[in-house]
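User: These chains co-purify. Model them together.
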Amino acid sequence: MTLQPEFFDRPVEEVAPELVGCVLRHGDAAGRIVETEAYHEREPACHAYAGLTARTGVLFGRPGAAYVYRSYGTHALLNAVSESEGVGAAVLIRALEPLDGLHLMRKRRRLERPDDLCSGPGKLTQALGIWLDLNGSSLQEGPIELLAPPAGAPRPRLVVGERIGINRAVELPWRFCDADSRHVSRPWPPAMRMRSRRAAA
DNA sequence: CATGGGATTGACT
DNA sequence: GTCAATCCCATGC
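Assistant: Joint model of the three components:
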């Protein structure tokens, strides 16, 4: 079932973990969400922190919309706008486990291995054919769909940690990963990073 | 108007 | 491990 605006009209740090296990679909390509991050206007890593601008308008709009923006000049990153209209907050979709349309994904990504098709926020938009023109589109009306977990699907075991690739508000534990998925963008950093980190000088 | 810096990825050492 | 690609936009003069 399609997730309704009410689902997103809540604290973003509650919406983000619940999106793990849900299904993201665009046309014939779909995947199960295995990694998300929450962003909110009150913390400086969020684009909405700067206030209402040309870039951030969608973030302050109605919950249940898609916020798609360009990252590093080259990639499109997909977010689900959350919290009430007027509040700038969204959940970044960071990784999927491919479910349908693998042939489309392989063609778009020019890769074969399923683990590499959607294991990153820029990768999954490429694999699903999601681009900047879908910024502001409705996740209820499409063409991007966000669906509740299939009936009977077990609730995923979550690993919670710090968000990736940001320099500010790094301490917030707002990254949520399916602990049992091999499709996350980076094998959950908390434990993993500690273990692989070189000993301090 | 000029500048700096990304919510990243892929190629390479 | 390092690094370039690539461009929009927020910021500052």
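Residues 50, 53-55, 69-70, 72-74 of chain A lie near DNA strand C (CB under 10 Å from a C1').
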